[in-house]
Amino acid sequence: MKLTSLKDIAEKANVDISTVSRALANSPVVKEETKQRIFAMAKELGYYPHASARALASRRSHTVGLILPDMKALQGPFYIEVLRGIEQKTNESDYSLLLTTMANKDKESIYLSLINGRRMDGVLLISENITIEELPFLVKENINFVVVNRFFKGPHINCVASDNIQGAKLATAHLISLGHKRIGFVTGQKSFSASCERIEGYKQALGERNLPFDESLLVEGSFQNGISSGYKCTLELLLNRSPRPTAIFAANDEIAVGVFQALRDKNIKIPQEMAVVGFDDAQFAAYLTPPLTTIKQYSYEIGFGACEMLIKLLNKEPVGTHKIKIPTKLVIRDSCGSKLKNPHSSK
Amino acid sequence: MKLTSLKDIAEKANVDISTVSRALANSPVVKEETKQRIFAMAKELGYYPHASARALASRRSHTVGLILPDMKALQGPFYIEVLRGIEQKTNESDYSLLLTTMANKDKESIYLSLINGRRMDGVLLISENITIEELPFLVKENINFVVVNRFFKGPHINCVASDNIQGAKLATAHLISLGHKRIGFVTGQKSFSASCERIEGYKQALGERNLPFDESLLVEGSFQNGISSGYKCTLELLLNRSPRPTAIFAANDEIAVGVFQALRDKNIKIPQEMAVVGFDDAQFAAYLTPPLTTIKQYSYEIGFGACEMLIKLLNKEPVGTHKIKIPTKLVIRDSCGSKLKNPHSSK
DNA sequence: CTGAAAGCGCTTACAG
DNA sequence: CTGAAAGCGCTTACAG
After folding, report:
1. Are B303 and B80 in contact (CB under 8 A)?
2. pTM value?
């Protein structure tokens, strides 16, 4: 079954294929009338440009690569939304999206085979476990890339991520405004930049209200094992902290679920005896008992923005800044209650 | 920056590029010694074949398309695992994976642009909302495809999915073996084949034990709005059913969460007063209170199997059957308790 | 076993 | 504004 090619259109329209090519690319150089005639024929013949031929000739695959540590990274609503944003942008710009995982491959060979094999024009790096070490390699190899949801310093390293500092500040300030002074914080792994930034935001909020920072109120949990680590860390926060915190900031919503469970097991009422804030605004956050107050991340915008930046790079268009921070938003539900009556009553 | 091509290798090895091409393709026709020499040079020069050039010449893109209704379809652990399976197989077979969504595009144009644009050799259809109508189009256009996680009849329609009938039978039989005779069933949308199959399995299990099938024990929920529909449907099952069911089968684990919530609100103890079984074995299933007994689907195997079948089709290798059913497994935890003491005591 | 040649379906200077 | 030609980097009959 032969598909229609430029040649078919050219013959039918009685022009050279180069003219057809230009017309379909909407080149300003070809006469409007000719263009219209060619458009019509192309449509009539059901023409679809052959992506590989085009890529070979133009030296652009019009494909963006998405590199994940492994598929499990997609778990949770956060990355799904990131993907939605990416897909929307690739669609609008007529790019294809190639999906790859670093699972059991070595990183350099991925980059090399994908970029040198010319399957993609640039890559989006979605990865909690990208290390700063591999980035210079990408820069050296002249690979267009943007890192999604992490920040790295360096002028050639393009990043788009949530403003974690601002988000954590928002959460902490909210608790403070409700009268809390001792705020426990179940963080994510400290090896993740997002964790450090959120801790930074927490400290800043405290500092701005002249509240002391107490190291013992920080317990390191895990983003991935949110529920179980949230549970364990809460138990720890309930022990030997004097006075006991009156509020807990969970570094993500899964962790908050664990916090909820521990609190329920200990018969500590939310929000009356302990306020809880999460981070992410996961879909289930509104369904918890009580509904979780949390920090919403604009993950769709992160994906879209990252892809937009990459495509601009590919088109050699000027990108403004190479580091984009997407602000977050406080979503108030019931897990923090309203003003605290007597924040220090419980010990 | 010029990348190394066949020509570079050919010059260096003092052979024609066609020989290099054959050697790298490991053609049996070229002399072993020549091959080795060429392999070495290729490696030394860091050669990566240009995917587009190869695709253009060989008329195979070596790319498999993954078509989703929208990114949200990936939500939940089920499809993540399916993806893992697919990725594993594409890796092994050296295929690339192109990701597309049907969100705001019309389906035929997707198929046409992707297949006729020759971006992919075949497609994997992951979609709850694929309709039987569009399949003949695919067949007519000679597109290689396999439907993941749904069954359609027809000799040219390749499907790989869980054995839903067997799974639902497993769940129901388990409840029956524990003494339950009145088993409520919060189904998925009846428009989904998975729902019908699970209902069928439920009926079969009942029939095999000579238990009557009571239509009023079936309430239609929703896979997507699992929690809220599970909640509502449970309330309904608790009303006017006489005698009241002593067990509830939830068509997926999210629905089971809703069932749990409703039961808790009504002060009905799980499993003492009501046994609950789910379906999927979602990650959170083990963390519910009580841990959920459920039916595990081998989603990784579904993805792997589907991709394997597709690649066989592309290679014109014989595929055995065109419909593969992957069996499910009962995972017993605490939500069904053990033997019922007095199954009819509660009314 | 290897080489020379044609061709895959486009794009893009170069002329005119 | 359009055409003729070269070229993108491979594969694959066809000869020898």
Report:
1. no
2. 0.86
